[in-house]
Design brief:
Blueprint: E1 12-19, E2 35-36, E3 39-40, H1 41-50, E4 56-60, E5 73-75, H2 83-97, E6 99-106, H3 116-127, E7 131-135, E8 138-147, H4 151-159, H5 165-171, E9 175-178, H6 194-215
Helix pairs in contact: 2-4
Length: 216
């Protein structure tokens, strides 16, 4: 695939990739297809990214891992296990697409803030470094904006045997963007177990009940 720069076309500033290549063994497997509030987790993520109106892809470990995918797939770097393989695949696609930066989000964070893309990308542009979301004094490396020039350093990082996304952020001198907790809800709460799923379901049902009470 020829990049836009090689073809003399304008560069795309930002593209998005949803990381969905994990097996989700702690929740019984097939995490992207698990249902929350009547929809799959992956559908919640796709609908959030669709509001950004930028080119987007779905990162998977194997083609057809998520069906129906609703987005074109990008296959993780097969040599690298874990989310780092998804990030490398996302960056490689972004380079081929002719983008300057790629924002990654996971398929298992249903509360992602509405201003995620805007704030992360503004910081990445300002400092010309990766920008990572934080909350409650914790980094969330799967929610980050990466300049595509990070692909080379991260390939070297992976070839050295490293797999940590936090280590990848340190390697590329990432800057942090913090979000506060609203109404006791961490916007980056992620679903790893059936207990996590039950807690989120109860939270959604409580919010809906409260809204109906106000409306009446």
């Amino acid at each position: 695939m020829y990049c836009r720069r090689a073809l003399g076309l304008p560069m795309t500033e930002l593209v998005a990739v949803i990381l969905a290549g994990g097996d989700g063994c702690r929740i019984g497997g097939g995490k992207p297809n698990i249902r929350l509030d009547g929809r799959r987790l992956i559908d919640h993520a796709i609908d959030h990214v669709a509001e950004w109106r930028i080119p987007a892809r779905l990162s998977v470990r194997e083609p057809g891992q998520v069906y129906p995918a609703r987005l074109p797939e990008v296959v993780d770097d097969p040599r690298i296990e874990g989310p780092l393989g998804g990030l490398l695949g996302a960056l490689a696609w972004a380079v081929a697409f002719g983008a300057r930066r790629v924002i990654t989000v996971p398929c298992d964070m249903p509360y992602l803030p509405c201003d995620l893309k805007t704030r992360l990308d503004a910081m990445a542009v300002q400092f010309d470094q990766p920008a990572v979301a934080t909350s409650l004094q914790r980094r969330h490396p799967v929610c980050s904006v990466w300049p595509v020039r990070c692909l080379g350093p991260l390939q070297s990082y992976a070839n050295s045997g490293r797999r940590s996304l936090n280590g990848a952020l340190e390697r590329c001198a990432a800057v942090s963007v913090d979000w506060s907790v609203q109404d006791g809800r961490d916007p980056f709460y992620n679903i790893n177990t059936s207990g996590d799923l039950a807690r989120v379901s109860r939270s959604i049902n409580t919010s809906l009940s409260g809204s109906e009470g106000v409306a009446s």
